[in-house]
């Protein structure tokens, strides 16, 4: 089974790291992975995307992801960039958004595409845990719950593998666990 | 890096192409690294700087002010007997250009990772094979990695090939910029011990020795220059059987089989695609789907680019009616782009040979999509059917 994820956020929010961590978590479960960051000029605040391809079979395709199974919107301000974030998503796919309240028009469009929509207030979690708007790991936690693609333990293991500082590991684990618990299915 | 599965004492880890190359270089226990940072190669040198700094690698890391100096430093170090590594891309390779010729003619054994990137202008940091092709005639052995695993494996093998006394030629490992250099895949890595056994310390030939002074790189005019070039030509030819030998030995310790050319579906292919680098997988991905529909397509991808595996390619293309030669670069004003010209030349004296179409793709990082690959195969089928090549040059995915 091949599963493809596209991540949307802004420079400085750790979009690429979220995709990298998901790939590492899947790798820990024995899956085949390809994680590709989209590299434009990486300015803080500019829209950034990252892509994760996960499969039970070896992955030989090295082209971009155009029809993702899942979309994760890390930046709450991108909720209204409907065309961008929904581009090419598979009918019946998954949409995970960082929002206190999911935008009405986004919900309407998501229903049209028969998407399953999950949301979590990663803004509050990030401010509580990190004291600044680092949404990536909470959104990874939310995606983990919403998709059921990889185990929570694998994601936490990937975090331990990726970050060296015990304090950073601890905070990210806290953020992931909280988002995993708080994310709710909207549609 | 956490262990998942063990294959012959190997760990499965997640790394980007750049990280995998750096890890291989560390395990190869190089003595000297000299490089100048340039995207998309930067991570390789950053990781190596960390390895040297934290004591994991006992090597001289020599920061320099340009790529020209980086390669010059490598030449000196290699002649002094050191195992030497450098990495660059695009403009950096261009700035090394005159030293590329010197490095090979003086029979250094430098190993270079080239994270393939388009040449300016306009400025671009993404993948083209301009830089690899620019080094084509300079006397370096060249490999192309298709994925992160190959980037790692080929780097380790490159040292053994370059330093073999029957070869003594510098070697380039090409890995597609960003598509491999900055993308994470799973790979198996050998134990340090296995690499050490496979790759014992370099045994230099006539190293610089102050007790025993010799002349290196002397003036040679019409009296000897010609013979130097002939000797170099022989060295390049001689490297071929050594490469095969090293591939075999590496298979014994890794379980992974390398060959100058990889093939898919070539046994009965009517049309074939010949390609370099990371897009080979995409070509096979499309070919598999077309074969499921009963269309006889094949894919040949070159792991070894120089010396050119001419015989293998000619043999594999026997019986093919039309072939698409894929070039991620362009040779302005030439009768076809670089790989196309190689293959056309290799086939010319064959009685039976396929019609050839040259497809340009992916310049400056433009994605090679399955649709583009299929369109190229369609053009080949058309040529095979009619016996005529309508358009010799296709530009896939250009606006």
Architecture overview:
The complex is a heterodimer of chains A (187) and B (399). With 187 residues, chain A is of the alpha/beta class. The radius of gyration of chain A is 15 Å and the shape is globular. Chain A has helices spanning 15-28, 82-86, 104-112, 122-129, 136-147, 152-162, 166-182; strands at 2-10, 32-37, 47-55, 70-73, 94-98, 116-120, 184-185. Chain A has seven helices and seven strands. The mean pLDDT of chain A is 95. Chain A has a single domain (2-185), classed as Pyruvate-ferredoxin oxidoreductase, PFOR, domain III (Pyruvate-ferredoxin Oxidoreductase, domain 3, 3-Layer(aba) Sandwich), CATH 3.40.920.10. The two termini of chain A are 25 Å apart. In chain A, helix 4 packs antiparallel against helix 7. Chain A has a seven-stranded mixed sheet, with helices on both faces. Chain B folds into two domains: 6-254, Rossmann fold (3-Layer(aba) Sandwich), CATH 3.40.50.970; 261-395, Rossmann fold, CATH 3.40.50.920. Chain B has helices at 17-27, 42-53, 67-79, 90-95, 97-105, 130-134, 148-163, 192-198, 225-254, 279-292, 310-317, 338-347, 370-386; strands at 6-7, 10-16, 32-35, 60-63, 84-88, 111-116, 141-144, 171-176, 184-189, 261-264, 271-276, 297-302, 304-306, 322-327, 355-360, 393-395. In chain B, the strands form three sheets. In chain B, strands 4-3-5-6-8-7-13 form a seven-stranded mixed sheet, with helices on both faces. Chain B has a six-stranded mixed sheet with strand order 10-12-11-14-15-16, sandwiched between helices. A three-stranded antiparallel sheet of chain B has the order 1-2-9. The model of chain B is unreliable at 1-6 (pLDDT under 50). Classes of the chains: A alpha/beta (187), B alpha/beta (399).
């Amino acid at each position: 089974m091949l599963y493809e994820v596209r991540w949307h956020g802004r420079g400085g929010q750790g979009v690429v790291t979220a995709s990298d961590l998901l790939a590492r978590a899947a790798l820990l479960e024995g899956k085949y992975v390809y994680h590709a960051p989209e590299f434009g000029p990486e300015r803080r605040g500019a829209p950034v995307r990252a892509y994760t391809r996960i499969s039970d079979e070896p992955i030989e395709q090295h082209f971009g992801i155009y029809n993702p199974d899942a979309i994760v919107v890390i930046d709450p301000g991108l909720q209204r960039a409907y065309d961008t974030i929904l581009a090419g998503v598979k009918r019946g796919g998954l949409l995970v958004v960082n929002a206190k309240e999911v935008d009405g028009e986004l919900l309407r469009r998501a229903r049209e595409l028969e998407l399953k929509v999950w949301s979590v207030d990663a803004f509050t979690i990030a401010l509580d845990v990190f004291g600044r708007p680092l949404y990536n790991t909470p959104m990874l936690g939310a995606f983990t719950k919403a998709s059921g693609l990889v185990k929570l333990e694998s994601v936490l293991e990937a975090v331990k593998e990726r970050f060296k500082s015990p304090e950073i590991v601890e905070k990210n684990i806290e953020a992931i666990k909280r988002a995993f618990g708080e994310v709710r299915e909207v549609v | 890096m956490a262990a998942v599965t063990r294959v012959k004492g190997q760990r499965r880890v997640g790394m980007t192409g750049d990280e995998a190359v750096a890890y291989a270089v560390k395990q190869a226990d190089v003595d000297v690294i000299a490089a100048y940072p340039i995207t998309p190669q930067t991570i390789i040198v950053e990781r190596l700087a960390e390895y040297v700094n934290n004591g994991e690698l006992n090597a001289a890391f020599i920061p320099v002010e340009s790529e020209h100096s980086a390669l010059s430093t490598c030449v000196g170090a290699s002649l002094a007997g050191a195992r030497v590594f450098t990495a660059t891309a695009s403009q950096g390779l261009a700035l090394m250009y005159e030293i590329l010729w010197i490095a090979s003619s003086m029979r250094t054994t430098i190993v270079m990772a080239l994270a393939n990137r388009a040449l300016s202008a306009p400025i671009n940091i993404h993948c083209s094979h301009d830089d690899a092709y620019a080094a084509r005639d300079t006397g370096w052995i060249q490999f192309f990695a298709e994925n992160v695993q190959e980037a790692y494996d080929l780097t380790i093998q490159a040292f053994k090939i370059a330093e073999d006394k029957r070869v003594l030629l510098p070697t380039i490992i090409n890995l597609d910029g960003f598509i491999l250099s900055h993308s994470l895949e799973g790979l198996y890595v050998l134990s340090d011990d296995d690499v050490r056994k496979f790759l014992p310390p370099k045994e230099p030939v006539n190293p610089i020795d102050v007790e025993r002074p010799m002349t290196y790189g002397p003036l040679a005019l019409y009296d000897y220059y010609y013979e130097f070039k002939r000797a170099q030509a022989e060295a390049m030819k001689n490297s071929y059987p050594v490469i095969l030998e090293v591939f075999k030995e590496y298979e014994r310790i890794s379980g992974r089989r390398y060959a100058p050319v990889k093939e898919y579906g070539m046994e009965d292919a009517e049309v074939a695609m010949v390609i370099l680098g990371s897009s080979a997988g995409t070509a096979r991905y499309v070919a598999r789907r077309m074969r499921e529909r009963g269309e006889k397509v094949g894919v040949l991808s070159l792991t070894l680019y120089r010396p050119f595996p001419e015989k293998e390619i000619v043999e594999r293309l026997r019986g093919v009616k039309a072939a698409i030669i894929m070039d991620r670069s362009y040779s302005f004003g030439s009768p076809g782009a670089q790989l196309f010209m190689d293959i056309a030349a290799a086939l010319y004296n064959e009685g039976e040979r396929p019609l050839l179409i040259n497809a340009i793709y992916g310049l400056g990082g433009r994605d090679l999509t399955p649709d583009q690959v299929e369109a190229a195969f369609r053009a080949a089928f058309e040529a095979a059917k009619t016996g005529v090549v309508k358009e010799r040059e296709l530009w896939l995915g250009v606006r």
